[in-house]
Write a structure and sequence with these properties.
The structure is a single chain. By secondary structure, this protein is α+β, with helices and mostly antiparallel strands. The protein has a four-stranded parallel sheet with strand order 10-4-3-14. The chain has a three-stranded antiparallel sheet with strand order 5-9-6. A hairpin with a 4-residue loop joins strand 15 and strand 16. It is elongated, with a radius of gyration of 26 Å. The termini are far apart.
């Protein structure tokens, strides 16, 4: 991406009213979003971890509502061989025909056709439309072999596997079921997805506390349930405390200190705390008790 440095992080240099949007993931969702954004006058850069060397996936249905959306974006799936659904036949395992539904006769129920297509062909079509020099807006920029390992939605920064950081005005996560981008948006996402911590995360207004002989962990949500706040209280010598309230705590340090706590508590630390070398917004504070005043005036 061409650009200048903003706080040491490359920032695209477009100066029009369009936003600089980073899309994480180059699948069907990523390219569809890219097409929609370029048509609205935004500038899109997409990062995909694969090289697109081998298109994968099976055949999929493009239902009328999905086809209608794609048509609004200028995508005609039939141009890449999608087949119009004409009928549906239901059989028993013995081969006995149970029912035949004539889909063409029912097509007047919808505004758009119902298609069947192979994912690889649909994906290629979307990629071609998104990157085409013709059409509305600027073609999106595609970076392959660019695995995203971290996102900062507050600063608009994406971190790649080689340590490179790129900044945009907005980040769209389209990186699938193991999404890096999605986990950064809401602390609850990772906790809900893990079967070990799922039960704890289902009630968002809960204040949870774990007590050990000389340490405890307190957990509660804030900021419209988009942030989880951890208070981890333990002997000062375990954290190398100082009078600097900005001193950071590492994820591994907390995991070591609370290693004897139950799996759910450890799972929350594992899932929610970012896996950077220093935890974002995680600091060490020393609890101090002033000496008693002996004389009162």
């Amino acid at each position: 991406m061409d650009g200048t440095l903003a706080n040491g992080v490359p920032h695209s240099s477009f100066t029009s009213d369009g936003l600089r949007v980073i899309i994480v993931g180059g699948g069907i969702g990523g390219f569809t979003a890219g097409i929609a954004l370029r048509r609205q006058g935004h500038y899109v850069t997409l990062y995909e971890q694969s090289r697109f060397a081998n298109e994968i996936g099976a055949a999929i249905h493009i239902t009328p509502n999905a086809d209608g959306l794609l048509r609004r974006l200028g995508v005609r799936v039939e141009e890449e061989g999608a087949v119009h659904l004409e009928q549906t036949r239901l059989f028993k395992d013995s081969g006995q025909l149970l029912n035949v539904m004539e889909n063409t006769k029912e097509s007047n129920r919808w505004q758009n056709p119902w298609y069947q297509a192979h994912r690889a062909h649909l994906h290629k079509h979307l990629k071609d439309v998104a990157t085409s020099p013709t059409g509305e807006g600027e073609p999106i920029t595609v970076n392959t072999s660019s695995k995203v390992v971290g996102t900062d939605p507050h600063e608009g920064i994406v971190t790649l596997h080689d340590g490179t950081q790129v900044r945009g005005d907005a980040i769209i996560g389209a990186d699938g079921v193991h999404s890096v981008a999605r986990a950064a948006i809401n602390d609850w996402v990772a906790a809900l997805a893990d079967p070990v911590t799922h039960d704890l995360a289902t009630i968002m207004g809960s204040l949870d506390m774990w007590y050990g002989p000389d340490r405890k962990m307190v957990l509660y949500p804030c900021y419209n349930n988009t942030l989880l706040n951890f208070v981890c209280i333990h002997p000062a010598e375990l954290s190398e405390t100082t009078d600097d309230y900005n001193k950071g705590a590492s994820k591994q340090q907390l995991l070591d200190i609370y290693r004897d706590f139950e799996p759910k508590a450890i799972g929350l630390l594992m899932n929610v705390i970012p896996t950077h070398s220093r935890c974002i917004l995680s600091t060490i504070w020393k609890l101090s008790q002033p000496s008693s005043i002996t004389v009162w005036l």
